[in-house]
Every structure is written in C-alpha cells, then in structure tokens.
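VWFA domain-containing protein: structure tokens wanted.
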Amino acid sequence: MEVDLCFVMDCTGSMGSYIEGVKNSIKKVVDYMANMEPAIRIRIGFCGYRDHCDGSNRLQIFDFTNSPENFKNSLSGVSATGGGDTPEDVLGGLDAAVSRMTWRNDIRVLLHIGDCPPHGRRFIYTDDNYPDGDPNGLTAEGVLGEMQSAKISYFFGEITGLTKTMISEFKKIIGEFNVFDFRSTPDTEGLVEKFFDATCSAINTAITLRE
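Answer:
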C-alpha cells in the first residue's frame, strides 16, 4: 500500500501554543509509518502557510520524501510567526499543496490543521484586510475542485471555533469530510496522541475510499 501524506498547517503567530505539539505529533507519525514498511510505504510532505503580509515567508513547502530523517530535519525549522488580521492565506496554502507538491501514489491524504479561516465575508465578518476574498483571485470552489480532480482526500484538524463557517462552506463544495477535534489541547501530550490517532484514521479512511 503506497500513500502520499501531506500536512498543511497554519504557521502564523496565533498557532504558537500549538505548533510545537503539532510538530512533535507529525514526527511521531513519521516514525510510526516508517515501521509499517513494507506493508505501507509512505511519502510525507508539508505545506505551511501564513498570510499575504508575510512576503517570502507566506508559504513554507517541503515536497514529498520517503526519508523520515530528512523530513523531520526540515520540519524542525518551522516556527509560528507572522500573520496580521484574523483570517490567513488558507486558500493559498491549500492551492500550493495541491499544485506544487509532486503527488504520485494512488492513495493521497491531505491533513489540514489551522485555527483561522480564509479571507472573505463568506468565512468571517470582522478583522479582515481582504473582505472581498483572496487578493490573488483564488476561490474555495477552484482550489477544492482541483483537489478533488487530483483525487486527494481532505481532512481537517479543528483548533478553534473560528473555522466553523469554513468547514460548513467547504462541505458544501466537496461533501462530507472528517473533522478532528484538537480544541483545548495546546502543546500537550494529549495533542500528540489526538493528532497521531487522527492521522492514522485519515490514512485508513483514504485507503477504504480507494478500495
């Protein structure tokens, strides 16, 4: 069984209390999956996003690798920084994960972790520097449509209630998807365990959908 697993994560300052816990969780998943070979062979990638005001730091992309050590070394350099208003460049992050990562295996899993929604009144009504939506012209329909066309299974890790509307709007576009509850567990062993269980569940669900 060959799997492409991509973590897409909000890496702005508001994620500061979660990001180390999430990074530790990802490293645990990587080690566990390495021990699953040859039953499951997995390539792991990462796409971190911030916001439009963050310039060259807006996106942080590590393409798929089958080397757990290389991936963990790359992930160590990720920190929670940047961001301006409440919403973040969610659509830019998801678009980069779909279009700039080299998806190859038949089973494709994207696990998105974030505490804030995309820009636009559709997702949030206050504190938005881009109330008319993504300044680069991205839309949820376009990005999620490309994701579906690429046969990538989407899963979301919910950290705050700010993403409730986003989840609802995304489901209108691509149908039901699993939402994992990571609320109230910042930077603790509880978060590591929840994240580990969620990732394994996402992979198992994607495998079942492909059978």
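Residues 43 and 65 are 5 Å apart (CA to CA). The helical segments are 16-34, 68-75, 90-99, 140-149, 164-174, 189-210.

Cheers.
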